[in-house]
Amino acid sequence: MAKQIKVSLIGNPNTGKTSVFNLLTGLNQQVGNYPGITVEKKEGICKLSRGVKAHILDLPGTYSLNASSLDENVVIELLLNKKDKDFPDVAVVVSDVENLKRNLLLYTQIKDLEIPTILVINMADRMQRKGISLDIPGLEKELNTKIALISARKGEGIDALKKLIESYTLLSKKTCLDALSFAPDYFDRLQKAFPNQSLYKLWLVITQDVNFRKFDKQQVDIAPDFKIKSESELKRLQQKETIKRYQFINNVLKKCLVVDEKVATGMRARFDRVLTHKFWGYFIFFAILLLIFQAIYDWSSYPMDLIDEGFAWLSEAAKNALPQGPLVDLITEGIIPGLGGIVIFIPQIAFLFFFISILEESGYMSRVVFLMDRIMRRFGLSGKSVVPLVSGTACAIPAVMATRNIENWKERLITILVVPFTTCSARLPVYLIIIALVIPDEKFGWVFGYQSMTLMLLYFLGFASAVGSAWLLNKLLKMESKSYFIVEMPGYKVPLFKNVIINVIEKTKAFIFGAGKIILAISIILWVLASFGPNEKFSNAKEIVTKEYTDLSQDDLDQKIASHQLEYSFIGYAGKGIEPIVAPLGYDWKVGIGILCSFAAREVFVGTLATIYSVESDEEETIKNRMAAEINPQTGGPLFNLASGLSLLLFYAFAMQCMSTLAIVKRETNSWKWPTIQLVFMSILAYSIALVVYQVLK
Questions:
Q1: CA angle 159–162–165, rounded 5-degree value
Q2: CATH code of residue 106
């Protein structure tokens, strides 16, 4: 068996840690959650040499081991528990050459844990342009480690880093400074109380609110020769420790780092003045969003048409090639159309993730957070709430988890409750198919079309609903709150193509496979319910229809029989049962079934209709054409017109239709109270708005 080295990748946010992870692992990585908690866990395999591999764990970004969020707690808990299966053989601390002073604080803390540690100094390609020169041998001597000087952008230095990882046993475990010498009496008593424990680990246990399993604060509390100081005293000691570390770092950098201020340029400040301007900043942001939505439509139309027609052809080909029977009907009328109803949206979802990745990689997203703080404060939130709200455009689940960086509980709770209003990628399939049916495919001006404008307005509506709800909750929730907003502005960077592509592949794959499992299960259930009926009206459909329609062609007769069977199937009766509830919104019973099923997950809606329509029709038609051909039995006109289409769009804009999000909200708030309020309020709001819109426009 190949030897496997366990490597923890650690670093401040915006140091290029993700780029290093991607360069080491490529696509050989997976994303999950840490056991028992919803913090994201990224890990991958890196081949070092023949017979040697490295298991790379990309830990959440942290500024120091003085944790202030759950993500940072995860880092500390792992590094203090040698029995953890992911405890590293070697820690790789990634730093940014332009922010070395701040990054080295975390490095000195990791070094005090007596773990073999490699320091990676990233963005070496910027050194000459910024007038920076480093004495690497001098730094290695002062910091008591080996250093890999790399450029993640150009892929330089990665081979040298791999060699250092492979030879980690040669690294010194000695610390580079005596960080706890500022209070000798206190730490001498602590060491005497626990003579067999690492002094710095004891200090972390005392100062951090982390679950350390068998070694926690309680053990320290019961020590007979030691008494824990008050919280305010501990914070003063932490401040002294930080000062001590920075004094050491300053002395090291004076010897080993030179910055020629004449060479360094001020382009970043000039860009910031424009992109965070109180007027032009918003104008540029909205213009970028509009271009993104237009590109999503224009670039994805051809692959979408090919996928749509491909699944229609596949269903028909399977029907002709395989012997007739219930199993073949299940495959051709249930599974293939159901999956086709979600796979068709891969191009547009991939493009959405592509553009979001570019904004994040370039450093622009941090400017958006700073810019939006001015607005968010008026509604009881802060700029930090923008990160979950923007993350919500991908999926509400990680967006709710991202609220953990908000220290103030009231702000965090409000953000959790309003995040589901933002338009996630699960809503995108519904929006796209309905917009294509009811909004003209025409353009005004030279570039922008009515359909892309409608999509952008729906995104803005979701954001406005979230902010408006936050304002209301801020007034209703009587909680004392006081918070400060601090955001780091990373340097501007040309996005790394490899990072963007890996992010797009991973996010799209997660969406497709996550949705695919649900859709496959629901498609099978729906097909069974649509293919069998409780009485003779279903089983004798052929005789009943043949007597009623004597002058139809065979094809028309077959379609009438299929429609009659569907109407009197199990799902037909269920749909007719809920039709009185959805009819005032402009929907028929089939759309009602789609809405009901989509309370499990919104993206199920299109797959549900694809399955129902496929069972009803034997023709080789795309889902879009079948929906366009649907007739409203009350009006005799198209079922999906402007009134019913806008009603449906607005219903999905406001409805809380995601059981997974409700489960995450319950976990994050530790109560069923808040997710229940979310579900009831958003469902009533969605129904009311959809009802008013349809009744006014019909």
A1: 155
A2: 3.40.50.300
pLDDT above 90 covers a percentage of the chain that reads 15
**Is 119 strand, coil or helix?**
strand
Yes or no: say if 206 and 234 are a contact pair by the CB < 8 Å rule. Answer: yes
Taking only the tens place, the pLDDT of each residue in 581-628 is 988 998 888 888 888 877 766 767 777 777 677 655 555 556 677 777
The three-class DSSP label of residue 259 is strand
At 439, phi and psi to the nearest 5?
Answer: -105, 130
Give the mean model confidence (pLDDT) for residues 521-530.
77
Structure tokens at 679: 């579900």
Domain shared by 374 and 445, yes or no = yes
Residue 285: closest CA among 210, 364, 202: 364
Q: Is 639 domain-assigned?
A: yes
- DSSP structure class, residue 578: H
Asked whether residue 499 is assigned to any structural domain, the reply reads no
List C-alpha distances in Å: 413 to 419, 478, 673: 10, 12, 12
Q: Is the pLDDT of residue 483 over 60?
A: no
Residues 397 and 460 in one domain: yes
Domain count of the chain? 4
Alpha-helical segments (H) within 598-654: 604-616, 623-629, 642-654
Which residues pair with residue 120 across a beta bridge? 94, 148
The pLDDT of residue 445: 64
Residue 360 to residue 631: CA distance in whole angstroms: 45
Name the residue among 211, 237, 207 with its Cα closest to residue 70.
Answer: 211
DSSP character at residue 333: I
Q: Do 145 and 190 have their domain in common?
A: no
Cα distance between residue 597 and residue 262, in whole Å: 64
Angle at 600 between CA 596 and CA 602, to 5 degrees: 80
Do 561 and 685 lie in one domain? The reply is yes
Q: Is residue 175 part of a domain?
A: no
Measured CA to CA in angstroms, residue 306 lies from 9, 243, 340, 344, 688 at distances of 41, 62, 11, 9, 38
- Tell which residue, 514, 507, 515, has the closest CA to residue 29: 507
Q: Which domain holds residue 522?
A: 516-697
Is 316 found in the same domain as 238? Answer: no
433 closest CA partner among 189, 569, 610: 610
CA neighbor of 274 nearest in space, from 387, 129, 371, 363:
371
Do 217 and 76 belong to one domain? no
Please report, for residues 60, 112, 119, 141, the alpha-carbon distance to residue 137 in angstroms, rounded to integers and kept in the order given: 29, 21, 13, 6
Same domain, 613 and 467: no
Q: pTM of this prediction?
A: 0.60
The answer to whether residues 303 and 199 belong to one domain is no
Contact present, 395 and 428 (Cβ < 8 Å): no
Q: Where does a domain end: 458, 476, 494?
A: 476
Nearest to 393 by CA among 448, 348, 340: 348
